[in-house]
Design brief:
2 helices, 3-stranded antiparallel β-sheet, single chain
Length: 68
């Protein structure tokens, strides 16, 4: 019985401690493009519209690095 209570307790605690996974914008687009160009020598290779509010951009370099 003690194991059951302990298991239920830890399950409840871990359920409340879980953080939902959400992507957040880390910097302004212009700053990101500048940083990708300076640090990795990447430039935009493709751009597409995922839905009316989301754009997907792909940056690549001659050295083989890439960023989505």
């Amino acid at each position: 019985m003690t194991r059951l209570v302990a298991t239920l307790f830890f399950a409840a605690v871990s359920a409340f401690a879980a953080v939902p996974a959400m992507a957040e914008q880390c910097a302004a687009r212009a700053d990101m493009i500048k940083a990708l160009g300076e640090k990795f020598h990447e430039s935009e290779a493709a751009r597409g519209l995922v839905n009316p509010s989301v754009i997907l951009e792909i940056f690549v370099s001659d050295q083989g690095t890439w960023t989505i």
